[in-house]
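Class, look over these structure tokens:
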Amino acid sequence: MDKTVILSVGGDNRMVYACEELSRVWKVYSYASCGKSGDTIILSDLKAMNEKANILLLPIMRDGGFYVPSAQGDIPFDSLIGCLKNNALVLGGRMTGAVCDYFKSKGFEVCDYYSCEELVIKNCVPTAEGALFIAMQELIIDICDTKVLITGYGRVAKCCAKVFSALGSKVSIAARNTARLAEAAVNGYDPVRLNMLDKEIENYNIVINTVPAVIFGEKQLEKLDSKAVLIDLASADGGADKQAVERLGKRYIHALAIPGKYAPGSSGKIIADTVRNIITERRENDDL
């Protein structure tokens, strides 16, 4: 084992399992954690850390901040600086420009692990499985009896299509790009033009949105069957007009951070693997 020391701060259960994986290789301290797993050293106070870290590991962020257990309260970034070595690497997910600039201004190297292709690709599986779990909870019919419409045909949409079709659902793909629609058709899914949503949406039991723009307005939502469920996997504000959803009484679930909620162990391992690869690659490059 080398002398790498990691300080992990905050986060949900994903970070508990990420720390467990990383502690198999390196010395890992965790502060403001949801729990302990593996050989992670839990800190109740940052002052109890008797050595400085090479790596500061922050969780996947939202709106420039990150989740910490309610008992901990807010953790200012300033309080973490004294725990880090001068040449420390700061790793976080979905860090804003302001967060990156802050740590860079203090002389640290910064890397957003959520921008790594491997993490995005691997996270598609727990996201799709989480969407399936939500659908099974919300519907009163078997998944194999459903007709599913998925908007968009990127990585998450493709994974959702595979998961639902494997269980017997009739899957359709709605997209603007004709090449994506052709690809969907080749893969066995019914293609639907996105501008035809208001004419097609009434035919489906499940609608899964992966498009990060409002494409479900009043015109589309009023055609959605009252027993159908719209599962929105898009980040930020999602793809539906929330006021129209409420006014029309539609069954709408904006399912954010699915991997952390439904598969924290797998999601934590994905984060750990990505972090480990980032660290290893940097060391290899330094040796060149």
In short: The mean pLDDT is 92. The chain is about 40% helix and 20% strand. Residues 264-287 form the longest helix (24 residues).
